[in-house]
Write a structure and sequence with these properties.
Length: about 325
């Protein structure tokens, strides 16, 4: 259909518009440009989808190799820790881990190729990730440290193979996997389901739940200000990947506190979080002083965002958490 057939196009004998017709003409012109912009958006979405599909296909072909390389890197980092912590090696089946790693990252790459938003992907994969996590901690909760690092290294290797322009979006999908492995999210959901809707403990946790990432980001930014030259195993705190991992750790500490409140005992921190930190942080050259600063800032955030009676539910578990990582237990005070 040509422009001459558009009945709403202003028609004047001399081809000139009168002042009275000008507003109508402007409305039409803006509508026309909006349609062009929408078409441009559709083309851009299609283009992004095609690029994502190509990248996902390439990375899926590399999955087997990266999984094996990640396993070697994980063993090099943690094999002595497995012995030192007296973890039964039979609880860590390399073939089972490789199979799960391959399947989970294949699912993540498919979601990325289909441009499923990361929050929606997180919801879709939550149940499966919960089962995988439960499988590995069933015999010994400390195994989760080894498994989490294996998955994390796999994701980092895949990310390094992706075009730089695609890495930020792709990393959001891989962070979902890290979050579900490091954090006892399903355990928190299951514990919450045992409470009445208006239970005060549940209300206290619900008050902080939507603020988790905001609180974690604030804590990490403050730690970066306090220790601007700090270097861990892979670089400075301000490096993008380390900053992301640090925020995840600050979120992880919060989730473990939620679980303790909802389960009304300290076992989640004692059996999972503490051994996980003891296994990983020294190997990753994370100072205990830095960990204590994280816990200190977390306490400040909790007290500032809750009413005193709500904060009281956190207090006994927070004090236990602080005690486990106190200078009396880990006396180092040097920051590299």
């Amino acid at each position: 259909m040509g422009l001459q057939n558009l009945s709403f196009l202003p028609q004047e004998k001399g081809g000139l518009e009168t002042a009275a017709n000008q507003p109508f003409s402007e409305v039409w012109a803006k509508k026309y440009l909006r349609k062009l912009a929408q078409q441009d958006d559709r083309v851009e979405v299609l283009k992004r989808s095609e690029i994502a599909s190509e990248v996902a296909t390439t990375l899926m072909q590399a999955l087997r190799t990266t999984s094996l390389q990640a396993w070697g890197k994980t063993e090099a980092l943690l094999s002595q820790e497995v012995i030192r912590h007296q973890i039964d090696p039979d609880f860590i089946d390399p073939w089972e881990v490789a199979k799960d790693t391959h399947q989970i990252y294949k699912t993540a790459l498919s979601a990325y190729a289909e441009q499923i938003p990361p929050p929606k992907f997180s919801t879709q994969i939550a149940k499966n990730m919960g089962k995988i996590r439960q499988k590995y901690i069933a015999d010994d909760p400390r195994v989760i440290g080894f498994i989490s690092i294996q998955f994390h290294y796999s994701g980092q290797m895949l990310l390094n193979l992706a075009p730089p322009a695609q890495q930020p979006l792709l990393s959001a999908y891989f962070k979902v996997i890290d979050d579900h492995l490091y954090m006892p999210l399903q355990r928190a959901y299951q514990a919450a389901a045992e409470y009445a809707y208006d239970a005060p403990q549940l209300k206290a946790v619900q008050q902080l739940l939507p603020l988790c990432s905001e609180i974690a980001t604030k804590i990490v930014e403050r730690v970066m200000e306090l220790y601007p030259t700090y270097r861990c195993y892979t670089g400075r705190l301000s490096d993008t990947n380390i900053r992301i991992s640090s925020i995840r750790d600050a979120e992880m500490f919060q989730v473990y506190l939620w679980v303790c409140i909802l389960e009304n005992n300290i076992s989640a921190i004692q059996q999972e979080l503490f051994p996980l930190c003891v296994m990983l942080y020294p190997k990753l050259k994370v100072s205990w002083e830095l960990v204590r600063q994280l816990i200190n800032l977390l306490g400040i955030e909790i007290r500032s965002r809750l009413e005193p009676e709500q904060a009281a539910y956190f207090l006994p578990y927070y004090e236990s958490l602080w005690g486990m990582f106190s200078p009396q237990v880990f006396p180092d005070i040097d920051i590299p």
